[in-house]
Design goal:
Helix 1 crosses helix 3, helix 3 crosses helix 4 and helix 3 runs parallel beside helix 5. The chain starts with 7 loop residues before the first helix and ends in a 28-residue tail after the last helix. It is mainly α. The protein has a three-stranded antiparallel sheet. A hairpin with an 8-residue loop joins strand 2 and strand 3. The chain has one domain. The relative contact order is 0.19.
Amino acid sequence: MSDDFPDGEASLSRWLDEFLIELGKLGALPLPEGFADDYSPESLPVLEAAVLTHQEQGANADLLVRALGAYLGEAILYTAGGRWECSGFPADDPAVIVDPVLKAGPVHVCSVVRRALDEATGGVFAEGHGWMQIAADAQRERDPGWRPVKTADGVQRPRPRGRRPKRRGV
């Protein structure tokens, strides 16, 4: 298998091993006092604005692409359920595979982050997450008992520091 598309299981294992290290890199961003790193939809525009400010100040935001992708992916998993996947995708772009009942394709989180850095509009993270929120809300309307379930991956994440708002329809 080529280096561009490495063995999925090995890549996933490496991604999960590095996951917390990647999230820790977000500490380099100029986040506002009291930022709630709770993977909520409300945290996404704040995080995106911080990385754009970081980039405007001359910092190399490319060094944070995987860290931002990890955060965005977790936010999507909290909303839409699913799992991380690396098989068949470029090594530098792990994907979130949402709950199949939502009928959504993989979300290549690092590609979304790169688009956000290129466009610099401040709305790309929220837009990407918003589509999954719409799908999840529609599924709850069809099946009120449905809840997003994130497949266990063995990574012990730190508890979010902020309060997670109650989800609509839950």
